[in-house]
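User: Small ask, check this?
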Amino acid sequence: MSSFGNFKEKLYVKLRRTLFLENIDRKLAKADHLQIDEYLQRNLYHNARYESADKLNRFEFQAFSQFGEDGIIEEIFRRIGTTNQYFVEFGVETGVETNTTYLLYKGWKGLWIDGSDENINTIKQNFSKAFAQGNLNAIQGFITAENIEQLFQKGNVPVDFDLLSIDIDRNDYYVWQAITHYQPRVVIIEYNSIFRPGCEFVVDYDANAMWDGTSNTSASLESLYQLGLKKGYKLVASSFSGVNAFFVREDLINDKFTGPFTAENHFESPKYFLYHTPGHPRKVSL
């Protein structure tokens, strides 16, 4: 940053402090968190709809996940158990907000993939102990349906592993469809929740495309549900926020989940306004 840029930055900070804007921001953030907590208590945790055995949402909590995914993951594996406690997640950015960071704290091992060299370098710095202990591997790669299994091979991913989390904001459907030589026990994948059950939608495939910030992305829960059936997976939950769908391999269902395992039963409308980080700002120590 130039000297003039530094001057502007210092002036901006001083002006905000003079006008007490920092205090106002803190008060607004606190009020926002309280409103979100009240909304969750009223509409999720104390809502009779989520007391039935087929609803995993009542177990939601947030440690390092974007919303309540950490809690759903924990409950799924409480029911089906774990094998090698190995995960694969891609689209992790810096690793601070993922569906699998909390699992590292619980002794799991796994692979992260991200398209940004900068993100991978940051991960290797911030998770240095996990790398040194052999608990985490991270590789750079722009993920496509054509190269996903090659990236798995590069990362030495076992054929059978416990958890796969897919979050690349566009071609998620096609990438999951292309994974045929690996059989994760649980799959988490983002869905486009503006499309209601009964409506099949999948964005046109473009290997080089990224999310353009519009609704023309990913796939509807109905389409992912249908894909899951073809691949031998049952839909067991969607996050209350309407972001992630959870699939369990059908040979593991038994009597541990009641169903019905349908998009209609597990659909959640988009509630992106619930995005916030309760407690202290996240910083990893791994």
Summary: The longest helix spans residues 21-45. The mean pLDDT is 91.
